[in-house]
Design goal:
Blueprint: E1 19-21, H1 27-44, H2 52-77, E2 81-85, E3 88-93, E4 96-102, E5 107-108, H3 113-139, H4 144-170, E6 171-177, E7 186-192, H5 196-199
Antiparallel strand pairs: 1-2, 2-3, 3-4, 5-6, 6-7
């Protein structure tokens, strides 16, 4: 690792074709949109929240939805970018050079199939359950609001599952060290499979 990377070199100085930006799924955005939908139903439907429990649901859903969508926007503006620098890899974070690593310091470790199934199977079952339960009252023209909320939860589960599957099968997972972090020694960076050879010619 090169500890002398000062952070003064900007990503804008690197030609676009040499930048390998991390790929991001849409998990925070999906769930942020769902909670904002819940908040809008309780906050804007009818005369707005009236009971304390409705105010609690409205307030907590709105806060969580705004936090998740805000985080989604923030992380997309601050993607980690990797640039091949001879035999080394330059790591840019928040638009500035953070460190320069030897290729061997960046590990390629895709999630195990068991871990993916442990997440994907319950998520898929939840998607089927909530979609089925939510669509019934809509078809019967009864409890439309409740049905739409449950159906939207099912759709959010489907979208979450689709995002997870897309990132799993179209990207490789890299473990990139983090300099000076008190909480994490490394971060997981997803890179499109089609661009892996730019960073690791031997793969």
């Amino acid at each position: 690792m090169n500890p002398t990377a000062s952070g003064t070199e900007l990503l804008t100085h690197v030609p676009e074709r040499r930048r390998v930006a991390e790929t991001l799924g849409w998990q925070p955005g999906i769930w942020g949109a769902f909670f904002l939908l819940v908040a809008s139903v309780f906050g804007l439907g009818g005369k707005g929240p009236s009971l304390p429990v409705e105010w609690t649901i409205f307030g907590s859903s709105a806060a969580l939805g705004l936090a998740l969508t805000g985080y989604e926007a923030w992380r997309r503006r601050n993607r980690t970018v990797l640039v091949k620098d001879g035999e080394r890899i330059a790591v840019y974070r928040k638009g500035r050079l953070d460190m320069i690593l030897d290729s061997g310091e960046v590990a390629v470790r895709d999630p195990e199939l068991f871990v993916m199934l442990r997440i994907g199977v319950p998520l898929g079952l939840a998607a089927i359950l909530f979609t089925s339960v939510g669509i019934l009252p809509i078809l019967r023209n009864e409890s439309m609001i409740d049905g739409l909320l449950i159906l939207s939860l099912g759709l959010a589960c489907w979208a979450s599952l689709g995002s997870a599957a897309w990132t799993r099968f179209t990207c490789r997972s890299l473990r990139v060290p983090i300099k000076g972090s008190r909480w994490r020694a490394e971060e997981t960076v997803l890179i499109p499979r089609s661009r892996m050879k730019e960073l690791f010619p031997g793969i």
